Amino acid sequence: MISNSTPEKCSLNNLQCEITFSISNKGKRLLIFKNYVFRCNKTTKSKIYWMCSESECGVYIHTNTTDELICINGNHNHSANPDQLETKLLRDKMKERILSETTSITKIYDEEIAKANLSKGVAAILLTVIEYRAL
């Protein structure tokens, strides 16, 4: 088991932690916290329960329905992959523009790549413009 940090237990002190959201390939919301991706497991009237997207990992997060962090529990048994996450977020931006604009795919791809200031790791795993045309 890989322990990236000390376990974070439920605490009101963690409410200020930075969380962001993205959309999965199936159109579901994803929560992103410290370069780890979480998927929604259950929603109630007052809470949303999130599980780490790695199937064997037991880390979970609770937020309220206005996306404020309530608690985090557990240690990840895998490493975060910031390059893969950055690639996903860039791909999401491109896909959104491709679907909503009349600008050519090649131009959107070039503009987003130029704005992104990519690391070598991200550049190595990023789809080519030809692959984006197949989206």
UniProtKB/TrEMBL annotation:
Single GO term (MF): zinc ion binding
Keyword Zinc belongs to the record: yes
InterPro entries with a match to the protein in the record: Znf_FLYWCH
Keywords recorded for this protein, A-Z: Metal-binding, Zinc, Zinc-finger
Keyword flag Zinc-finger: yes
Alphabetical list of Gene3D superfamilies matching this protein: 2.20.25.240
FLYWCH-type domain: residues covered: 21-78
Record protein name field: FLYWCH-type domain-containing protein
